[in-house]
Design a protein that fits this description.
The protein is mostly helical. It contains three helices and no strands.
Length: about 130
Amino acid sequence: MIKHLSKIATAGLIGMSMVPVASALSATQARECRAMNASIQVRQTEARQSADLRDTLLIGVEDAGDAWEAAEAVRLFSPTHAADADTKRATYDALKQDLMRLEMALQSSVSMINSDVAAYNGRCGMTRASR
């Protein structure tokens, strides 16, 4: 029923690595960079968990959509069949909405993480030229 959603948001997280802290940083800056790094890593783990939840929910949406389609095919057999089709459609629609909300939240989270990684790299990272 619903096509598998893109994993672009989480693919960037999996391959992402932090740049080592430059030795030219002051002790305070180094502490701040370590704290930023730890925060980013925690949020990356949370995003991976959300992506796993999304993938599980996607399977549930697919199954609910298949069940609704099967019930829709026999809708006209009786009022009971029609009610069953309506119930399965409502379940499918609710799961689909949950999936879309989770996907939007995940996309937003990954976007913020990516911004924070860029800020971390700009503030704490060493470039190859400075080594």
